[in-house]
Design a protein that fits this description.
Serine Threonine Protein Phosphatase 5, Tetratricopeptide repeat; 2 domains; six-stranded antiparallel beta sheet; 36% helix
Length: 286
């Protein structure tokens, strides 16, 4: 993702296809954050990589001193965090011409600057809307070189999966083998509506243990993490219907505000977790 793995691609500001791909990435960012939220709870890390690509511009004062610089550069952040309003991460690319940021900076940006996201699980890439578009514009040899540089399976051009197929009960495609030329089932686009209607498997599996933990230690439901986010704040932002339901059962306040002023409902709404929003409304969220 850095150095030779992430060359600078220039595209005109009026590139409608690229803007559409970025819009799709923003619309589906919730699945990136959901996976990140559960990754934080895994005893053994599951993700090989997780990053977001964001748009950077120099402030007008800086731009005036550097008139030949690119107006916008899209670069990747790792070690991503999200509080419902802003995305934070570590810049891993060296800017081509911008002066206000540099590789290694810890930056905080509003969500509207998000340009793309992707995570890698089991060597397979999920997300990567603008990456898929760029790959579609490459020759076959260029695409092979690109994929080899990253070292991950980006799948077929034109298909961007949001989650691993087993999350939604779909069959897992076998990796292409030596005799794949003899014929194999062609991949089909993932059903995004099915993804939206299906709970993350870790959310389902956690339900009983969370219920037991809160039964033994009722005060835990009101305790915050390092940022002051209680379980119901964390799980609302992660889209966990099971987790939110258990927290409400144990007396969590559906109108309690997080340190940034957002309620569980507002946190769920910012990412479009409709089923969680409905459950919170049933509990009296305003």
């Amino acid at each position: 993702m850095s150095g030779s793995k992430s060359p600078i691609f220039k595209s005109p500001g009026e590139d409608a296809e690229m803007q559409q791909a970025a819009a799709q990435a923003r619309q589906n960012f919730r699945y990136f954050w959901r996976e990140m939220a559960w990754e934080q709870r895994r005893i053994i890390p599951g993700l090989e990589l997780a990053g977001v690509k964001v748009s950077f511009s120099d402030p007008p004062v800086v731009r005036a001193r550097n008139p030949g610089a690119l107006e916008v550069e899209h670069m990747w952040l790792l070690e991503v965090d999200f509080d419902g309003r802003q995305i934070q991460g570590t810049l891993i690319n060296s800017p081509h011409s911008l002066k206000s940021v540099r590789e290694g900076d810890r930056v905080t940006i509003p969500g509207k600057q998000l340009f793309d996201w992707m995570y890698v699980l089991g060597g397979t890439v999920f997300g990567g809307f603008t990456v898929d578009l760029m790959r579609s514009r490459m020759s076959k040899s260029e695409r092979m070189q690109h994929d080899r540089a990253w070292g991950f399976d980006f799948g077929e051009v034109g298909i961007v999966n949001l989650v691993p197929p087993d999350y939604i009960g779909d069959p897992v495609n076998k990796k292409k083998g030596l005799f794949s030329f003899l014929g194999s089932a062609k991949s089909t686009p993932q059903d995004y509506a099915k993804v939206a209607a299906t709970e993350h498997p870790m959310s389902v599996n956690m339900r009983q243990s969370l219920d037991q933990a809160l039964s033994k230690n009722p005060e835990m439901v009101h305790q915050g993490d390092d940022r002051g986010y209680t379980f119901i704040h964390q799980l609302s932002l992660a889209g966990s219907l099971d987790g939110v339901d258990v927290c409400l059962k144990h007396g969590a306040d559906p109108n309690a505000t997080a340190p940034n002023g957002m309620t569980p409902y507002a946190l769920a709404k910012c990412l479009g977790w409709k089923r969680v929003m409905e459950r919170l409304q049933q509990a009296g969220a305003t």
